[in-house]
From TrEMBL:
Coiled coil: none annotated. This is C-type lectin domain-containing protein. It comes from Meganyctiphanes norvegica.
């Protein structure tokens, strides 16, 4: 049966531009029915678009890659606010079952996806990784702070401190701070 995936978000959609949604999916046996639908929510999709079709607002097409993989295209002409507010769905069925591929459009910038081992704090625009380096003596802490261009370390009752380092995923820049 067709393999279903989570909602696909398409970002940086510009009003008044044309935009083509390209969905890849797998199905074995091959699809026997394909149809695009749209509406104000995924539960309310009363508008249907056949595949293939070409009219003033929509054009659709379908490609069979002959290996169980397929692509369906939905091209929207002159994107409006209403188009961006709509939810779109590609319905794929074969003799084994059916799957719906949900699509939403957004004017927002594409959110950053972090590589494995990197993460992003709320409000941040970069991915980074943290790692700790143990410091065993006060002299070592002072030396590390100078090497890493930290603010001057202040002595505490604890002898051991942690030098916390970070490195950004995209540009390799980094920094450090001292947890005393």
């Amino acid at each position: 049966s067709p393999v279903q995936k989570p909602v696909h978000m398409f970002y940086q959609i510009q009003l008044n531009d044309d935009y083509e949604v390209n969905l890849s999916f797998s199905a074995n046996p091959p699809p026997t029915a394909l149809k695009w639908s749209f509406g104000p929510s995924f539960q309310d999709m009363n508008n249907h678009i056949q595949i293939p079709i070409e009219n003033r607002k929509f054009s659709t097409s379908f490609i069979n890659h002959n290996n169980g993989n397929y692509q369906a295209y939905l091209r929207l002409t002159e994107i409006t606010n209403e188009d961006i507010e709509y939810h779109f769905k590609l319905h794929v069925a074969n003799e084994m079952g059916a799957a719906d591929y949900s699509v939403m459009l957004s004017e927002a910038k594409n959110p950053i996806e972090c590589r494995k081992g990197f993460f992003m704090l709320d409000g941040s625009t970069q991915c980074f990784k943290l790692y700790d380096e143990q410091i065993r003596t006060w002299e070592e802490a002072q030396t590390k702070c100078q090497e890493e261009q930290l603010l001057t370390a202040k002595p505490t009752d604890q002898v051991v401190a942690t030098l916390r380092k970070y490195i950004f995923d995209k540009n390799g820049d980094g920094g450090v701070w001292l947890n005393a």
